[in-house]
TrEMBL record:
Membrane-spanning intervals of the chain: 100-119
Membrane topology: Single-pass membrane protein
Signal sequence extent: none
A single cellular component GO annotation: membrane
Name the UniProt record assigns to this protein: Uncharacterized protein
Family: Belongs to the UPF0389 family.
Top-level division of the source organism's lineage: Eukaryota
Alphabetical keyword list: Membrane, Transmembrane, Transmembrane helix
InterPro entries, A to Z: DUF1075 (IPR009432)
Cellular compartments annotated: Membrane
């Protein structure tokens, strides 16, 4: 447990690291303080697991409304209020980003499996890049030969 012992009251203060916003060392409560005393010491933060100062209320965009419904915060689009706490929108966006990443990862795995299966089927048919290259060169050489014969005078 981390304690900061240099303070005017000479009481140790429990500290924590905030990930987003706030200071690196934010006093949570001195030893022996109650929750109400903690709230009076640090009114901008909502608790020991706070991610910084509260975000202001925001007007959700159309995409935010989709994310709020998709995350389960609101069941219907009509139930979404005009102003929503910024933390709620942030959590809904984060959840939507995670879900979209999982969907894209699943799609990539399925697509790569399909490519492996189609490559094996092409190998069984005898198709290869080397054979396609030979066929292409043969076609180009034949068309060039025909064009040379057509332009040559008899």
């Amino acid at each position: 447990m981390n304690f900061l012992t240099i303070n005017p009251s000479k009481k140790p203060i429990a500290v924590t690291r905030h990930l987003i916003g706030g200071t690196f060392l934010q006093p949570i409560r001195t030893l022996g303080q109650t929750a109400s005393a903690t709230a009076s010491c640090s009114p901008a933060y909502s608790g020991p697991f706070s991610l910084g100062p509260p975000k202001p209320k925001l007007i959700p965009t159309t995409l935010d409304r989709v994310f709020l419904r998709w995350s389960g915060h609101y069941v219907e689009g009509d139930a979404i209020p005009r102003l929503i706490d910024g933390n709620v929108i942030h959590r809904a966006r984060s959840l939507a980003i995670v879900r979209m990443n999982l969907i894209f990862m699943f799609a990539a795995v399925v697509a790569s499996g399909a490519m492996v299966m189609s490559g094996k089927a092409a190998a069984e048919r005898g198709e290869s890049l080397q054979q396609q290259n030979l066929d292409w060169h043969k076609h180009i050489n034949d068309t060039h030969k025909w064009s040379q014969e057509a332009t040559m005078p008899y």
